[in-house]
Write a structure and sequence with these properties.
The chain is mainly α. It is built from four helices and no strands.
Length: about 90
Amino acid sequence: MKMKDGAEYVKYVTARLVRYIDTPSEERRRIRLDARKRKEPWLVKWFGWAPYSVLLWYRSMKTKLRPGTRMPADLGQTEENNHGRSTS
């Protein structure tokens, strides 16, 4: 949109400001929360779903191995979990 002077822009900004002021605060808050829920995580936006899935897996493993909790009996006993290291 090409503007010769700033009059159209001032009209646009004024209309947006009036609409914002006329909207109740509860409605604005609800709109903001809805927008946040629809927004995808930045990791997905920049790198795709693969790194995000690794992050989710890592977080789930981290919560399973939290200090003070009991470690599952079979964790660390198989070749897959040891990444090829010998258990003996």
